[in-house]
Amino acid sequence: MEYDFLITLTIILFFSAFIHGSIGFGFPMIATPLLAIFTDLQTAIIYTLIPTLLVNILSIKSEGSFWEALKNFYPLAILTTIGSAVGTLLIINFNTDLFKFILVASILIYLLFDYKRIEMSWIKNNPLKSKTLFGIGSGIIGGLTNVMSATLIIYVLESKFTKKQIVQSFNICFIFGKVTQIILFSASSIYTISEVKSSLIPLLFIVIALYFGIKIREKINPLIYTKIIKIALFVIAIALFIQTILIY
Q1: ∠ at Cα 110 (107, 115), nearest 5°?
Q2: Between 203-217 and 3-23, two packed helices, what is the crossing angle to 10 degrees?
Q3: What is the DSSP-derived secondary structure letter of residue 201?
Q4: What is the pTM of this model?
Q5: What is the distance between the alpha carbons of residues 139 and 76, in angstroms, rounded to a whole number?
Q6: Where are the alpha helices (DSSP H) in 39-96?
Q7: Cα 30 to Cα 147: distance, rounded to the nearest angstrom
């Protein structure tokens, strides 16, 4: 890996972990599109696999044990794992910058849903169908773009999950998804020892960023801070969209 890219990777992951700690979510949603500006989407996903797994594990510990989360949400995690495997196989076999459009769409869907507070009552009225649809669908998008939460958040909010349930369900699904991606990328000889070593370097910085982010969360108005991050996500999505158009 080039030294300049390693520095860029560390800065982006540090920033993303700080934001995640500050507002309680957002690590892959911020890190992936930022990295995708400097490289292709597959590479961006590969270098965030272990860091995202670390953030998920630390986050789930903050809201209960792994086994508690697994017991409560293993059906949803299994569905997202299936979808994640499909999405990962697609990006392995058809690695193209066109998938960045899906990443942009995922971010914009999340922002639109959050802004409009769109109600989808059929989700709560059809729990099995909606869980299957959003579980597999979110997994596929997560496998392709690393941003599973953009659609999964629609399901958990409409299902009236508590804050603790949201954190647990998100992170248990993310952990299963990341492990699946690591296995498939490794089996395809794309995720090598070199990438593993490079992605381990920023881990200490990520832990530090998470720690200070959590401290900041206690002092800053979370509503204002969240609005700032959402504006930043919108700008990143538009920049990524323009960049991909210019490539083609």
Answers
A1: 125
A2: 30
A3: T
A4: 0.84
A5: 10
A6: 41-46, 49-62, 66-93
A7: 9
Site of tokens 């953009």: 150
| The pLDDT of residue 181 | 94
* Residue 38 Cα distances to 2, 9, 34, 104, 244, angstroms: 12, 10, 7, 15, 11
Say if residue 130's pLDDT is above 70. yes
Is the pLDDT assigned to residue 137 strictly greater than 70?
Answer: yes
Q: What burial class does residue 121 get, using C-beta atoms within 10 Å of its C-beta: 0-12 exposed, 13-18 middle, 19+ buried?
A: exposed
Amino acid at 146: N
pLDDT digits (tens, 9 = 90+) for 209-223: 988 888 887 677 767
Tell me, rounded to whole angstroms, the distance of Cα 27 from its chain centroid.
Answer: 6
Mean pLDDT, the chain, as a whole number?
85
Phi, psi of 61 (to 5 degrees): -70, -25
- Token pair, residue 183, equals 């296995």
Crossing angle of the two packed helices 99-116 and 222-247, in degrees rounded to 10 = 150
